[in-house]
Amino acid sequence: MAMGFEFDSATRRKLGYQLIDQIDQYYASLEDRAVQVPVEQRSYGTLNNPLPELGEDPAQVLGELCHEMVDKGFHVPAANYFGLMNPTPTYMGVLAETLVSALNPQLATLARSQLASKIELETVRWIAERVGWGSGFGGTFTSGGNEANFSGLALAIGQHFPGAVDEGVSSIGGQPVLYASAEAHHSLDKSAGLLGIGRKALRRVTTNGSLQMDPSQLDRAIAQDRDSGRIPFCVVATAGTTNSGSVDDLVAIADICRRNTLWLHVDGAFGASVVFSDKHRDLVRGIELADSITIDPHKWLAVPFAAGVILTRHPKVLEQAFSVASPYMPKATGARLPDNSRVSMQWTRRMNSMKLWLTLRVHGRRAYEELIDRQLQLTRDFVSWVERSTEFEMAAPAMLTIVNFMVKSRGRSPEQIAAIHGYIVDEVTRDGQRWISETVVNGCSVLRMMVISYLTRERHLEGLQNSLKTAVAAVFAAKKVKA
Ligand SMILES: Cc1ncc(COP(=O)(O)O)c(C=O)c1O
User: Fold this and answer.
1) Is it true that domain 365-477 has CATH number 3.10.450.50?
2) Which end of the chain is more exposed for a tag (fewer CB within 10 A), N or C?
């Protein structure tokens, strides 16, 4: 039973080694670990333990927790997770998180964080340099892409309607509107509502066959809104959509923004990380033309949650949108950098940058160059398999590491195809070994797989391909749907 919170050195070390041993075993298992328990063992009920009045033996509780979390958990870090944009965390990232928890640097103000703040700003600079912004940028770490996108829209409002920061959106004197593709992330709807301009202010522009925003439709929508007295102020282009990984034509959209004096925010939560690759940087050509960018290191850069980043070429607007004077803020005498709280929605702030900084210090950018190249190659291999398959076909081009595919239509209705996809996903995920999903793209059901773990290799793809073949055969054999 542990009453006080202090432990002696021997206990601290014993518990620490115990945890590291558990994490080590877990990491050793990830290449072959099932993503989750088989379907019949899954349960989604609540836990009903009473609030502990008195504590228990720490080694025992910690040991039990580790076992339960591993035995009953859902393992996003597993090599067979072909899932959403959640990576296997780098081990240096895990260690950095532990150090951050222990030191608990308070990033709200420079005066109380100093080196931690400098490390954060350095990490932001490294990313900005990869974007192509040598100087004159600002930015900060966020809790993820949602907060970064929210911040990007707040910047766009701050730039276009500076009075609105104090006077509110009613002072704008008209309805502000912004644009994103039909495939853009739902955090934009949420942000538009929370920023007070309303979710309907977000115009969804139709996409072309590659699921990219159609620039001519964008041009037309802006003109129509202007003619109707509304006030366009921002376009959000996506670099790596959640469904399909498609990248909007950033150069064409930047040109439209320049002609119409609109803020360009690039939601590169997933895809902007490709700037870390010299070989593939062209996939996000034009990203440097953005006014602000969202990039989430906790996606393709494989650091543990949470780490998003908002970057902008207009550091003054960042302060205009976020800084509030408070007499209790400690001042850093002689500081040449803005306090973090002046450029962020957050006040007390965790150091979300150390895990990327440490990963880069230990492995270097070239490790990301190699990772991105390898994952793009694995994706191309999977696409070739789909194209050769007798049962499946591609549903959309794969620009990054996401593949949208479908059963061959063979005259089936969209409802039949959706039903087949549902059965296939159930079959593939039934034993818990691997995970894929289905989604809806352009109104049609598609199967979705993504290469996201740095542990995923050819043999994992082969396992998935075999599982898909078995699943499709089982679905038709059981006559669940017309073959
Ligand atoms: C394109 C895109 N933008 C934003 C987000 C939101 O990021 P987060 O989950 O880190 O808040 C996601 C999440 O998947 C995304 O795919």
Assistant:
1) no
2) N
